[in-house]
């Protein structure tokens, strides 16, 4: 039996707070409340495009300092380059997951691009 303290968090689209942050000024994010529900063990957000793609307008080469990162494409598509994988285009319904600090560059995206991201740890 789990020794975790029960906690429920509901995240609703109606009245959701969307914010801009990080390397991607072309996206806005909605926190799903996973960090609150898991005492910081897991984080989760929805990211969506807020402006049309312009040449050179992706996210420059970077990496995420997380133990695990999952990206699920909910709408549209995006094209990225991941070290060790190469150039990849992910479309609606596709998912990519990795652990460790993998250098990546987000090259291009559709106007209706929307993804769900899950990370361990929540920071």
Q: Note the run of SSEs as H and E.
A: EEHEEEEEEEE
Low-confidence region ranges: none
User: What about the largest sheet?
Assistant: 6 strands, antiparallel
**End-to-end C-alpha gap:** 27 Å
The portion of residues assigned to helices is under 10%
DSSP E strands, number: 10
The neighbouring-strand order within the major sheet is 1-2-3-10-5-8
Mean pLDDT: 86
Radius of gyration: 15 Å
Query: DSSP strand (E) fraction?
Result: over 45%
Structural class: mainly beta
DSSP summary: helix tally: 1
Describe this protein's structure.
The chain is mainly beta. Helices cover 3% and strands 46% of the residues. The chain has one helix and ten strands, in the order E-E-H-E-E-E-E-E-E-E-E. A six-stranded antiparallel beta sheet has the order 1-2-3-10-5-8. Strands 4-9-6-7 form a four-stranded antiparallel beta sheet, with no helix packed on it. A hairpin with a 7-residue loop joins strand 1 and strand 2 (27-31).
Structure summarized in a few sentences:
The chain is built from one helix and ten strands, in the order ββαββββββββ.
């Amino acid at each position: 039996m789990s020794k975790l303290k029960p906690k429920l968090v509901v995240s609703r689209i109606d009245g959701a707070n969307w914010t801009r942050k990080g390397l991607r000024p072309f996206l806005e994010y909605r926190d799903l409340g996973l960090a609150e529900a898991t005492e910081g063990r897991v984080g989760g957000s929805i990211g969506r495009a807020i402006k049309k793609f312009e040449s050179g307008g992706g996210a420059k080469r970077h990496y995420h300092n997380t133990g695990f990162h999952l990206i699920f494409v909910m709408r549209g598509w995006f094209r990225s380059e991941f070290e060790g994988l190469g150039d990849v285009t992910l479309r609606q319904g596709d998912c990519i997951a990795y652990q460790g600090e993998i250098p990546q560059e987000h090259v291009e995206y559709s106007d209706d691009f929307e993804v769900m991201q899950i990370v361990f740890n929540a920071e």
